[in-house]
Amino acid sequence: MFIGNQSKNKVERAISEIKRGLPIVIYDESNYLLFAAAETLERDSFDQYKLISDNIYVTLTSSKVTYISRNEEHSSKRLLINNFDELSHLINCSKEDHIKELQCSKKIDECATVLLKFSELLPYALVVDMTFRSRHEMRDWCEKNDIIALDTLLVNNFQQNQNVYEVCKTPLFLKQTQKVNIISYRTESGGREHHAIIIGNPDRDGEPLVRIHSSCYTGDLLDSLSCDCRSQLHQAIQIMTDSGNGIILYLMQDGRGIGLTNKLRAYDMQRKYNLDTVDANRILGFEDDERSFIVAAEMLKKLGIKKIQLLTNNGRKLSELKNNGIEVTKCLPLIMERNKYNDSYMETKFGRLGHGLRVF
Asked: What Gene Ontology terms describe what this protein does at the molecular function level (predicted)?
């Protein structure tokens, strides 16, 4: 077959369509769902959906529903949308959302949300339930309308595939430590790139120092005072330089996994409504932390390393590494200086996200 892995390719094509504002159909054993990213729609395209059905919904994640219901625990829901102005109001994420006409969501809705998160768009899917007599009829309709049809099983397999492969390796010279080696990896699901920065010559049979660092455009590059990311990165490099070796796994997971644009939206929510970073994520419909550290475990395995000492304040990194075959013999904290701009953020990390400053 000319195209090797059609399952993977089809999901990647669907993500590309979603980013461009186009609809796709997803289906399981008993449901057919036409959906598009709500934030990409304009009034004319919304009106086209109204021609298909009067019952148009937007999916709301459990974190969004929990936030607007004042922190009572709730599951994901559907919100009936009557017109484009209602949709626009929802996308603008007003803190004073008064949500009415909530209905139970379907299991298939979760698949739409997953695809939106892969696309780094807001997790609001405009959905229309479709009725087809058979898969053949569905495929004919999709072909006629030039719409991709995607089995939810393909999406689930794509989401679970955390395998990585090495792309290239080269020396690099850093101000703090002179020569290092940097290795670029790509994930098999989606081709997102992550990087391993190798300082010195870590002993594969020993317990090298490892720092899992999620990318932070505003902190690492712009030296933002609103977070401690850049300080953590450079302190980790210095500690490894002083000890003679270490590995920094630089993961492209900006904004705790929601992407840079959504992170900037969350910043705007914080400023506008005096929210902390957790509630800002929730009002946008995201979980408190959307990151996965499984890919870090896969990178360490590619490097032939099975036992490490971890530089972190985040216990979740420890548990995910352990659950994926990496032995962590010790966790060492990174102690950062606070300032008036990041003090509230630091308090939230320790008070609500479970970070801690201790050796364990």
From this structure: GTP binding; GTP cyclohydrolase II activity; metal ion binding
The distance from CA 9 to its chain's CA centroid, rounded to whole angstroms, is: 20
- Residue 140 φ then ψ, to 5°: -65, -45
* 237 shares a domain with 195: yes
One domain for residues 62 and 202: no
Token digits for 193?
């790139």
Do 126 and 217 fall into the same domain? no
Choosing from 254, 289, 352, 358, the catalytic residue is 289
150 and 204 together in one domain: no
Q: Do both 77 and 55 map to the same domain? A: yes
Residues 47-78: tens digit of each pLDDT: 999 889 889 999 999 999 888 877 676 789 99
Residue of 54, 291, 338, 358 marked active site: 291
Cα separations in angstroms, 197 against 77, 176, 202, 228, 238: 42, 13, 11, 20, 13
Q: What would the two tokens of residue 39 be? A: 């934030």
Q: Is 291 a catalytic residue?
A: yes
* pLDDT tens-digit map of 95-105: 655 666 788 89
